[in-house]
Design a protein that fits this description.
Structural class: mainly alpha
Order of helices and strands: HHHH
Distance between the termini: 12 Å
Number of strands: 0
Largest sheet: none
Radius of gyration: 15 Å
Number of domains: 1
Strand content: under 5%
Helix content: over 70%
Oligomer: single chain
């Protein structure tokens, strides 16, 4: 998978997140909003993971990423990114039809 694939996956996911979550005035609307929030949460994780993949593919180091994330070290940054990166890999495979 190329660096560009990761950038596209991150961009598409950020677009989905920006659609926002609706207002809730009734219980059914609140349930719908919760479902939207769950999707936003999942999409945020995918975008985070795809962004990590793109940065790493472009030569950014885990140490640099850790510094920007405020992580104690690169091991903590890797731990923070492990599941989002797995989700991003699955999203990219799906997007590419694999």
């Amino acid at each position: 998978m190329s660096e560009n694939d990761w950038w596209v996956t991150a961009g598409l996911t950020y677009d989905r997140i920006q659609r926002g979550v609706g207002d809730a005035n009734t219980a059914p609307e609140l349930i719908d909003s919760m479902a939207e929030l769950a999707d936003v949460h999942r999409q945020s994780a995918i975008a985070f993971g795809a962004s990590l993949h793109a940065l790493l593919a472009g030569g950014t180091t885990w140490t640099e990423i850790a510094d920007r994330l405020g992580a104690a070290d690169q091991e903590e940054a890797r731990a923070l990114g492990a599941e989002p990166m797995r989700l991003a890999e699955a999203a990219l495979r799906s997007r590419l039809g694999g």
